Amino acid sequence: MVLSICTVHGSNQFDGGSEVQLKQIQNEMIKQGHLVTHLNVNHGNHLPKKVKNDNGSLTYNININNKIPLWEIMTFIKIIIIFRFYLKGKIDVIYTRGYYYLLPLIFLKKSYAIPIVTTATGKSSCYTNFQNFFINNNFKKSHLFSKILLRSQLKQVELLCLTNHQSKLIKANFNIDAKIIQNGHPKSFLEYGKKQSKLIVWIGNSRPVKRLNYFLDIVKEFNDSSLIFLVIGNLSRKDYTNIAKSKKLSENIFFIGSQTNDYCNEILSKSLFLINTSTSEGFSNTFIQAWLRGIPVLTLGVDPDNLIFKKKLGMVCESKRTLIKIISKYSDGNDNLGLSRNQIRQFAEKNFSINITVSKLINHMEKLISESKAF
Length: 375
Prior knowledge:
Blueprint: E1 4-11, H1 17-31, E2 35-42, E3 50-52, E4 58-63, H2 71-87, E5 93-97, H3 102-112, E6 116-119, H4 135-138, H5 143-154, E7 158-161, H6 164-174, E8 179-180, E9 199-203, H7 212-220, E10 228-232, H8 237-246, E11 253-257, H9 261-269, E12 273-276, H10 285-291, E13 297-299, H11 307-310, E14 314-316, H12 320-331, H13 341-352, H14 354-374
Parallel strand pairs: 1-2, 1-5, 2-4, 5-6, 6-7, 7-8, 9-10, 9-12, 10-11, 12-13, 13-14
Antiparallel strand pairs: 3-4
């Protein structure tokens, strides 16, 4: 069964994990023979109204200036117009990640009887104070009303999540049974080098939740070592200036800015570790990218569904001091942490390959479409 799928998401000046994952899903859907049309609510520079992408999909850009009054209402109207004049009768199912645009999409569902599938991404999306379309600015002072509004929206869509922990939170807070379909990435064709690597990578941005300052503290402990530390991600000039002023940076740390997914994958394939210092994650794309290359992940407390601990996919450390000790022990060539790169890679290919993720998603969509036609 060939599906015609409409994906919906917003964009700013750079892509976060949710945007990266959506692109991977779109590419794999097309690879599996499905039709994909994307509605992009653009809050950055003005983009052409309609774009044909390299993968064969179409993107309709909805350019919005979120500094003007009532911009959310304009977004609602433009989504409806694009759908009514260009996509009416051509779409089988709508897919989005996160809750932000659910309100206009639910209007489309009721008007055209199209199922909506949405994935809860970060941990914050499991709570009733999550801010989404209209709730963000118009009802932020009324938590009770926003809670009722968000819950009523989620009851009208097919809700997915990434982990068992998220599923339990969603059940407790919204009384909704969310199906688990984890993130995925393409398999790696790059083999980890035989020589001991001296490269340690941190991927993210300078948002407080990522705790980049923790990583900088860790790096300072290895100033005289042969290790090389890379920071990959979008840091503004202001962010970097503040970091440079507040921290005495080591000579063996390099900031290389935002990079393509392919570049990150190549760097990871040459790395000793991926370090994660975040306070929380939904299910980080970078974890999966590292595991598909046999690279262990070292975190400061983050462990989705305890997989890192249970499947020996890295180490979960209680403190910066513990993490520093692990790096010192492992980087000396003493591979005695019980971590097998081959086993890490095999586990990731079996559980997190993008073709597996998308096949599960398509099967779920087909079931929903059949159910909607039955009524």
